[in-house]
Amino acid sequence: AEPRHGNQPRTLDEARAEARHCKACPLWEPATQTVFGKGPDHAPVIFVGEQPGDQEDLAGEPFVGPAGKVFDAALAEAGIDRDQAYVTNAVKHFKFVPRGKRRIHQKPSMGEVKACRFWLEIERDLVRPKLVVALGATAAATVLGKAVTIRDTRSRLIDLEEGAKLLVTVHPAYILRLPDPESQARETEAFHRDMDLVRATV
Ligand code: URA
C-alpha cells in the first residue's frame, strides 16, 4: 500500500503544504526541502522530471539548475511558455552523497520512486492536463506504472486514462552528460522536435 497523508488535498496549494512534511521515504531528512511541482492549476501540460538536483533543493523549485537551462531552451525554441505549464518531478526530494563541500546527485531507488508516486497522482488529479510529458525513463515508469525504455516509447502519443496522452522523451540532463558535441547537437535537436510535438498537442 502506498503511504497516504491525511485527507486528499483539494487544491495544489493544499497538496504543496502537505508535501512539505512528507516523510514517506527517508530522503526528506538530508534534503533542504520538498520540491513540489510548480505551475497553474489547470495547465494543459505537465512535465515530469526525475527528482530535484542540488540547485532545485536549495531554491525549492523544479528545473532551475543546469538541466533546467536545457529544458528552458527547448521550450523557448518550440514556443512553449513555461508559466503556462505545470513542471514537477517523480521524486520530490534531492538525493545526494556529500563529497567535500559538494553534494553529488544519486539516482532515486525504486522504493523511493514508489513511495513518492502518490504525489504525482494527486498533481495529475488536480491539474487534469491534456498531455503528460515524461522527461526520462524514471518519469515514464512512474506515469505508466511499469519499467519502460526510452527507445520503445519515445516521441509518440501514448493513451492514458480519460483522453489524456503521454509523451516520453529524454531527460535534459542526459543531453548534458553526452561526451561529444556532435551527439549533444543531435540529441538537442531531437529533444527540440519532441517539444514541437508538445506544442502541437496542447
Ligand atoms: N533534474 C530533474 O529531474 N528535475 C529537476 O527538477 C532538476 C533536475
From TrEMBL:
**Source taxon at top rank:** Bacteria
Could you tell me which residue ranges the Uracil-DNA glycosylase-like domain spans? 36-196
What is stated as this protein's family in its record? Belongs to the uracil-DNA glycosylase (UDG) superfamily. Type 4 (UDGa) family.
Name of this protein: Type-4 uracil-DNA glycosylase
Q: What is the lineage of its organism?
A: Bacteria, Pseudomonadati, Pseudomonadota, Alphaproteobacteria, Hyphomicrobiales
What part of the entire protein does this chain span?
283 to 484 of 491
